[in-house]
Amino acid sequence: MDKITRTLESKFNELIEESFQLIQTVPEEKLFQKPTVDYLVFSVGEYILRSVGRVEQTFGGITSRLWDDPFEWTLPEELSTHKKIFEYIEEVEATRKKGFEIIKSDEDLYRELPAPEKIKSLFEVLFETLIDAEKLQAQAKLVLRLGNKD
C-alpha cells in the first residue's frame, strides 16, 4: 500500500476509533438528547450515526456498487443503545476494511467509479467522504462540549 492510500486508511481508522470513544463518553440516556444551542440540530448520537453512515455509504458503494443512504437503518429508534451503536460501527468498520483491500496502490485512487451522483475518481470519493464524516463528527464533539453539560 502506497503513502496516500495508507494515509487515507489511517484517517478513516482514526475517525472510526474516535466515534467509538465519543459514544462511550455519553451516558446512554443522553445519546439522543437534543443540544441546548440553536445552531446544532442533532444530538451526539445522531451526528455520530450520520458520520459513520457516510462512511458506510461510500464503502458500500466501493465494494458493491450500491450507494444506498443508510439513513433509514441508522435512526435513533433502531440504534438506541451503546451496544447497538457499537455493533453498527463494527459493521461499518468491516465494510471499510473490505474497501481498502481493493486498493492495492496509490494508482488505484485514479480509477473512476460511478459515485452516487456522477463519475468521480476513487480519491475524490474517499476524500469527500472523509471531510463530510469528520465535519459531522466535529459537530458531535461540539454538542458534547456545549450542549450536553447538564
Number of domains: 1
Overall 3D form: elongated
Give the N-to-C terminal Cα separation. 46 Å
Contiguous runs where pLDDT drops below 50 for at least 5 residues: none
Q: What's the CATH architecture name? A: Up-down Bundle
Strand residue percentage: under 5%
Largest sheet: 2 strands, antiparallel
Arrangement of strands in the largest sheet:
1-2
* C-alpha Rg (nearest Å): 16 Å
Structure annotation, total helices? 4
Report on this structure:
The mean pLDDT is 89. The chain has one domain (3-147): dinb family like domain (Four Helix Bundle (Hemerythrin (Met), subunit A)). With 150 residues, it is mostly helical. The N and C termini lie far apart (46 Å). It has a two-stranded antiparallel sheet. The protein is built from 4 helices and 2 strands.
Topology summary:
Elements: H1 3-25, H2 44-64, H3 82-102, E1 112-114, E2 119-121, H4 122-147
Antiparallel strand pairs: 1-2
Helix pairs in contact: 1-2, 1-3, 1-4, 2-3, 2-4
